[in-house]
């Protein structure tokens, strides 16, 4: 019964991902929905008592999901970039505490 439910969730994951891609035209949102539902299907397979292969499959999907989102998120702004933006907006250097304006 649980195996059938996991197969159904897998099929629905593919359908929902494709439907979202077509309707919203956002491949990132479609990929996120697809991977989240595949994680759910993998966890359902684990409850069916499939053994180590089900655990490896669920771990692989979770790892793939984490790697894809880390790669798609891109580099985060560094502290130096934020400081340069603050300086350009305020017109002052961070080391200049006397209130003088620096060019």
UniProtKB/TrEMBL annotation:
Segments crossing the lipid bilayer: 42-64
Disordered, as annotated region: 76-103
Keyword Membrane appears in the UniProt entry: yes
Compositionally skewed regions (Basic and acidic residues) per UniProt: 93-103
Alphabetically ordered keywords of this record: Membrane, Transmembrane, Transmembrane helix
Domain of life: Bacteria
Protein name in the entry: Uncharacterized protein
Organism: Micromonospora coxensis
Organism lineage: Bacteria, Bacillati, Actinomycetota, Actinomycetes, Micromonosporales
């Amino acid at each position: 019964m649980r195996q059938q439910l996991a197969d159904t969730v897998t099929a629905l994951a593919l359908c929902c991902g494709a439907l979202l891609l077509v309707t919203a035209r956002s491949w990132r949102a479609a990929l996120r929905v697809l991977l989240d539902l595949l994680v759910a299907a993998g966890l359902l397979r684990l409850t069916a008592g499939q053994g180590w292969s089900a655990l490896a499959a669920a771990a692989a999907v979770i790892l793939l999901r984490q790697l894809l989102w880390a790669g798609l998120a891109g580099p985060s702004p560094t502290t130096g970039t934020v400081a340069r933006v603050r300086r350009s907006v305020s017109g002052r250097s961070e080391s200049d505490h006397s209130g003088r304006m620096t060019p």
